[in-house]
Amino acid sequence: MQHIWIRSCFPLLIAFLLLTACTGSVDSTPTAANPLSTATFTPEPTLTPTPFPPAIVLIAPQAEGTPWFNETNSVLAEIARQENLLFEIKPSITVEEIQSRPIPLVVILPDGIDPAALAESAPQTQFLAVGHASLSPQTNLSVITAQPYRPDWEGFVAGFIAAAVTEDWRVAVVSDSDTTEGKAAQNAFRNGVRYFCGLCQPLYPPFPVPTYPLYGQLSSTSASSDVDSLIAYFQTWSVKTVFFHQPAPEWLTAFGQAGFNLISDQPPPPTLGERWIVSIQSIDLASELRSLIPALLEGKGGQDVNLSLTLTHINEELFSPGRQAFTEQMISELVSGYIDSGVDPTSGEFLP
């Protein structure tokens, strides 16, 4: 009986020992809980306003109705692109607006705000006044005094010079009289000739009727045969000097090679030096702006520019210094209004 009890209890004893061994190997130390991660707050960045880029501003009260608008607008836009500047056109501007943003240059056309008062109130900006009468330059105010393009002035001066340098006043003019500018230049040429020589009647034949100056017409559609016919016509009447208004270069070459002395509003072709009397360059606002504005952007203000008719490419063998001085005096009086061309520049017709 005793052996039977031992055999029946032996498995229970083994199980108890195994359970005790397993329990003793277990770590009874409690496991610490993982702490919760702390959230990090990142503040939103402060928005900084983007500064205005520097700008050139054109003040044109009536935009395209303002004198010199087209030339000024074109040149300023061109320079702004080259200098990586903004370009704006406005009818007006205030001192507060100029001071609130970088505006290195303000160009002011006529009949708007007072350039002098604005320049005095905004000394950090350069100003350029174009076409404003009776305005004096200041440290940051430059002035261009100019007149709009006057083909009648060109024609009048050309007629005066042609009569002054040509024996027996045998002179002629070539233009496109179907255009207002061509008609104005042609009619004013006649008045310029008559201003110098009165009736301009030659002493020796031939005697054209009416008398000199003679007229010829060429246009962009004229053929070389038209040029040849006009040359023959002028040679028939012993014309010596011809004024061309806005000619094609080949016309000048053909007439020069035929023996005529020439005056034009264009530079001479390279081969006509001995036949060229003078070029009458009208007001060139665009070239002056291209020359002046880079200096103003560098802060070099106080410029005073007076644009008028200019005599260039002068041949002193045909147009002596004495006659040049006489002509310059006449041009000054013409531009100042003491002499009138006698032609309406808006229609090209003679004034009553």
Structure description:
This protein is of the alpha/beta class and 352 residues long. It folds into 2 domains: 55-145, Rossmann fold; 151-282 and 309-336, Response regulator (Rossmann fold, 3-Layer(aba) Sandwich), CATH 3.40.50.2300. Helices cover 38% and strands 15% of the residues. The chain contains 10 helices and 12 strands. The strands form 2 sheets. Strands 2-1-3-4-5-11 form a 6-stranded parallel β-sheet. A 6-stranded mixed β-sheet has the order 7-6-8-9-10-12, sandwiched between helices. Helix 2 (69-83) packs parallel to helix 9. It starts with a helix and ends in a 16-residue tail after the last helix.
Helical segment tally? Answer: 10
Work out the count of structural domains. Answer: 2
Structural class: alpha/beta
Order of helices and strands: HEHEHEHEEHEHEHEHEEHEEH
Largest sheet: 6 strands, parallel
> What is the percentage of strand-forming residues?
15-25%
Q: In CATH's first tier, which class of the largest domain applies?
A: Alpha Beta
Rg of Cα set:
44 Å
- What is the 3D form? elongated
Features:
12 strands; single chain; six-stranded mixed beta sheet; alpha/beta; 352 residues; six-stranded parallel beta sheet; Rossmann fold
Question: Would you summarize the structure shown here?
Answer:
With 352 residues, this protein is an alpha/beta fold. The chain has helices at residues 2-24, 69-83, 95-99, 115-121, 151-165, 180-197, 224-236, 249-257, 285-297, 321-336; strands at 55-59, 86-90, 105-108, 126-130, 141-145, 171-175, 214-217, 241-244, 261-264, 276-281, 304-306, 310-312.
